[in-house]
Write a structure and sequence with these properties.
Blueprint (H helix, E strand, L loop, with lengths): L5 H5 L5 H23 L1 H51 L11 H6 L5 H25 L4 H45 L7
Helix pairs in contact: 2-3, 2-5, 3-5, 3-6
Length: 193
């Protein structure tokens, strides 16, 4: 029996083949079908290769936009983890670990890149196949539909980013207050003359 650990499969290094496969599948399969159902004249004019490339031109922006909400959710999770780790680290004896330099931060691998690509490609796949089903039963304007869909995903991303940023600011403020309160209560009282 195959033991499949989804967390390891989606994780940064383990998820690369899956992420690339899902992203490429999203770029070509549902988007090319959507182009075929909404604008079959493109296939007649440019052939199957041209239709597939038009599909990729439709699919790439959808994958890119659908990654944004997942990135902000995963980023907020990492930031929350860092904030909650600050409380025990504030009272740990010994020197604090040095902060990484700007060069180290800029050249470090983004741990959210591949999980975001996998989840964003899954979301884009679902959205595009939903649009394919709708286009099969009723005619759609391809550009207007994709702009509306991207606008909805952008609005979801914006709401998530604002709400998560507000929640993280509140958590950080509470953590700082707790650290300060514990330090003041643990400090020895000042000797009076």
């Amino acid at each position: 029996m195959i033991d499949l650990d989804l967390a390891r499969l989606i994780a940064a290094k383990g998820g690369r083949p899956l992420g690339v496969f899902i992203a490429l599948g999203t770029l070509f399969l549902p988007s090319a079908l959507l182009v075929y159902l909404t604008r079959p004249d493109l296939y007649a004019r440019y052939g199957i290769v041209g239709g597939i490339f038009f599909g990729a031109a439709v699919g790439f922006p959808m994958v890119w936009v659908c990654c944004w909400p997942w990135y902000v959710v995963l980023w907020a999770g990492l930031k929350q983890e860092r904030i909650t780790k600050r409380l025990p680290e504030a009272f740990r004896p010994g020197p604090k670990p040095p902060e990484p330099s700007l060069v180290e931060q800029a050249t470090a691998e983004d741990p959210l890149e591949w999980p975001t690509l996998v989840m964003g490609a899954w979301l884009a796949n679902g959205v595009l196949y939903l649009l394919v089903v709708i286009a099969y039963y009723r005619p759609l304007l391809l550009g207007a539909t994709l702009l509306l869909t991207a606008g909805i995903v952008f609005a979801v991303w914006l709401v998530l980013a604002v709400l998560l940023q507000l929640g993280l600011a509140k958590l950080e403020r509470e953590t700082e207050q707790t650290i300060e309160r514990i330090r003041t209560s643990a400090a020895p009282p000042a000797a009076s003359p």
